[in-house]
């Protein structure tokens, strides 16, 4: 298990390096002189030259990449052109908000989705199963930004149950502010996970080891919750691991609609101003999150499924 | 009568399907006495598996019990509430399934699964574990204590089947159902498993209902045999009687076709020509008629009843009726 974990994280690091390099090159391919856009039309040539040198934009691209990685090793993502603050500090200021949003969304949608799916699979083709299916599919079909706008309108503006914008102060304040965005992002995941768990459960319930467990008089509850669910959950863990990436992008919508601070808002704002250090810093962190979550999903699977430990 | 453990009495089971009822079992009757080994022989699809899942009531949702009783120690299992039925499973009646590669849960350790099936026992975890290790030792798994922590995929097929037998015998059941336990294994392993079963049967003195299509194994292991064809019993009786003096043409052909029985090097292995009749659309008369080389006019008109010929030897064929033979 330990060896597997080390190997898996080695792979994750490799993926991270490749992804960050590609992102670095792609940002450079965006047309327009970044220095001119950053400083505006009235900047003096001296100022432009100084910034170009500061950002190492006068160097060949491979050298820029080396400088970038060199600084990265020291935990230095550069200095924000406008505020002069360290990019690392800016990014890590925003990160907790996004993380809280993503984890809250995935937590409630996974719990509800798995419960709904497992229940539907245990009672296939009953009325409840059909209702669950109809709800799940409509959840999946609803785009996150539409749900975000509607829930904002209904629960924050009309009913005034939850705050409309911002991130809140203190634990309960933050939690209160999390409800609507997490609801908006998580809703389609509830349906998706429920469908996935149901299909996966039905497949596992038909396997002969389930018949064996029943033939030994093991209670139906334990058969479903332990003998079947533990296997049926495996593809769900993988999907959630990969889904963290998609959640990061839906978090952008939620952060804009609910005017929440966070990585998504930071990236959008800095791309429009060609604020390279911030963009690279946020992209690096998001990529890192994505790579870490897929690696974590694989580790959870390896922990749940002994067969996965010996494979690869 | 008091030594009868299991009585199948005129059991008929259908499967409801889109193209009508599939008559999987029709009028099955036989019994198993305490400590006895009864073999059930028949081709694939003859209803063997339906029969055992009916005994344990682990049937598919489209199964319909049309008539008859399955009496275990005098109680009709088909009428028992699910709660009482579950109390019997794995306690008084245990089962070893066909495919050892699929029979264990792949994500739980063997020890965990062997602990779980002792859910009725009041013993401590350590005692249950010791009992599990003891059972693994009894079926010949070396170093059982350490192997309890391993997972099914770390065992070979033969070992997994022995573990399945250990699990089935753990509660010292009165009846062990073995559903083609050696079909998925190679010949040398088959002999090992059969010998182990025989030893354990003597040790635990349980009755065994042994399902197989391998006549050699049945002849070796069983006291009595039930021959099934297309969902019905065609012949049943003492194992020697059946093999030396079969009274049903199907049994006779089955013995002729057994590879172990063919003395000379045959160019073409003998087969029974024809096909098993469609269970959703049964022809009238004897079900084996189309494939029988001794069929008579009467066979098309009436279903031959399962009649007693000698003490305990039953067959369902008009050839055994004097008036028909004339």
Automatic annotation (TrEMBL), chain A:
UniProt-listed Pfam families: BPD_transp_1, BPD_transp_1_N
Source species of the chain: Leisingera aquaemixtae
Protein encoded by which gene: gsiC_4
Keyword set includes Transmembrane helix: yes
Subcellular location: Cell membrane
GO BP annotations, alphabetical order: transmembrane transport
Keyword Cell membrane: yes
InterPro entries: BPD_transp_1_N, MetI-like, MetI-like_sf
Stored PANTHER family: DIPEPTIDE TRANSPORT SYSTEM PERMEASE PROTEIN DPPB-RELATED
One of the record's GO cellular component terms: plasma membrane
Gene3D superfamilies, per the entry: MetI-like
Protein name per Swiss-Prot or TrEMBL: Glutathione transport system permease protein GsiC
Protein family: Belongs to the binding-protein-dependent transport system permease family.
CDD domains recorded: TM_PBP2 (cd06261)
Membrane-crossing segments per the record: 9-30, 99-119, 131-158, 178-197, 231-258, 278-300
Membrane topology reported for the UniProt record: Multi-pass membrane protein
UniProtKB/TrEMBL annotation, chain B:
Membrane topology field: Peripheral membrane protein
NCBIfam families for the chain: oligo_HPY
A GO cellular component entry from the record: plasma membrane
Protein name: Stage 0 sporulation protein KD
Domain ABC transporter span(s) in chain numbering: 6-255
UniProt-listed Pfam families: ABC_tran, oligo_HPY
UniProt-listed GO biological process terms: peptide transport; transmembrane transport
Compartment list: Cell inner membrane
Organism: Leisingera aquaemixtae
A GO molecular-function descriptor: ATP binding
Domain of life: Bacteria
């Amino acid at each position: 298990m330990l060896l597997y974990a080390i190997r898996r994280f080695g792979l994750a690091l490799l993926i991270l390096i490749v992804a960050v390099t590609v992102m670095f090159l792609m940002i450079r391919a965006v047309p327009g002189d970044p220095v001119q856009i950053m400083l505006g039309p009235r900047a003096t040539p001296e100022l432009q030259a100084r910034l170009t040198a500061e950002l190492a934009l006068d160097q060949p691209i491979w050298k820029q990449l080396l400088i970038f990685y060199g600084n990265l090793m020291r935990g230095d993502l550069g200095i924000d052109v406008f505020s002069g603050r360290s990019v690392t500090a800016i990014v890590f200021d925003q990160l907790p908000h996004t993380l809280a949003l993503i984890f809250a969304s995935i937590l409630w949608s996974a719990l509800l989705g798995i419960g709904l799916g497992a229940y539907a699979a245990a009672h296939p083709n009953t009325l409840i199963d059909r209702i669950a299916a109809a709800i799940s599919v409509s959840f999946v079909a609803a785009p996150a930004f539409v749900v975000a706008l509607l829930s904002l309108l209904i629960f924050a503006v009309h009913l005034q149950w939850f705050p409309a914008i911002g991130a809140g102060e203190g634990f309960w304040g933050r939690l209160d502010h999390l409800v609507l965005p997490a609801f908006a992002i998580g809703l389609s995941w509830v349906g998706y996970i429920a469908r996935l768990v149901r299909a996966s459960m039905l497949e596992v319930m038909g396997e002969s080891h389930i018949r064996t467990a029943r033939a030994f008089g093991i209670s139906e509850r334990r058969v479903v919750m332990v003998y079947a669910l533990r296997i049926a959950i495996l593809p769900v863990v993988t999907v959630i691991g990969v889904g963290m990436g998609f959640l990061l992008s839906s978090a952008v919508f939620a952060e804009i609609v609910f005017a929440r601070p966070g990585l998504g808002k930071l990236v959008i704002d800095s791309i429009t101003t060609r604020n390279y250090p911030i963009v690279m810093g946020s992209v690096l962190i998001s990529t890192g999150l994505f790579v870490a979550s897929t690696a974590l999903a694989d580790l959870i699977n390896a922990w749940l499924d002994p067969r996965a430990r010996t494979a690869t | 009568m008091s030594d009868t453990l299991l009585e199948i009495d005129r059991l008929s089971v259908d499967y409801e399907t889109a193209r009508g009822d599939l008559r999987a079992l029709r009028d099955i009757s036989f019994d198993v006495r305490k400590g006895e080994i009864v073999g059930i022989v028949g081709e694939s699809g003859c209803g063997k598996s339906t029969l055992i899942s009916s005994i344990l009531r682990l049937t598919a949702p489209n199964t319909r019990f049309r008539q008859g009783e399955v009496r275990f120690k005098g109680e009709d299992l088909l009428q028992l509430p699910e709660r009482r039925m579950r109390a019997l499973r794995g306690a008084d009646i245990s089962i070893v399934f066909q495919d050892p590669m699929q029979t264990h849960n792949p994500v739980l350790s063997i020890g965990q699964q062997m602990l779980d099936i002792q859910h009725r026992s009041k013993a401590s975890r350590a005692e249950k574990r010791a009992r599990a290790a003891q059972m693994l030792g009894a079926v010949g798994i070396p170093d059982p204590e350490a192997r309890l922590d391993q997972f099914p995929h770390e065992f070979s097929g033969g070992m997994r089947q022995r573990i399945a037998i250990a699990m089935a015998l753990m509660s010292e059941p009165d009846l062990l159902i073995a559903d083609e336990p050696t079909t998925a294994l190679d010949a040398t392993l088959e002999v090992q498993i059969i010998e182990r079963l025989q030893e354990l049967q003597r040790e635990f003195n349980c009755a065994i209902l042994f399902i197989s299509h391998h006549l050699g194994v049945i002849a070796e292991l069983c006291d009595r045999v039930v021959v099934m064809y297309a969902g019905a019993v065609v012949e049943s009786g003492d194992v020697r009687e059946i093999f030396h003096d079969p009274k049903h043409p199907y049994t006779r052909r089955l013995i002729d076709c057994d590879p172990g029985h063919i003395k000379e090097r045959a160019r073409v292995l003998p087969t029974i020509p024809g096909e098993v009749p469609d269970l959703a659309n049964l022809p009238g008369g004897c079900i084996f008629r189309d494939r029988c080389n001794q069929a008579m006019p009467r066979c098309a008109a009436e279903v031959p009843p399962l009649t007693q010929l000698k003490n305990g030897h039953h067959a369902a064929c008009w050839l055994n009726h004097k008036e028909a033979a004339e």
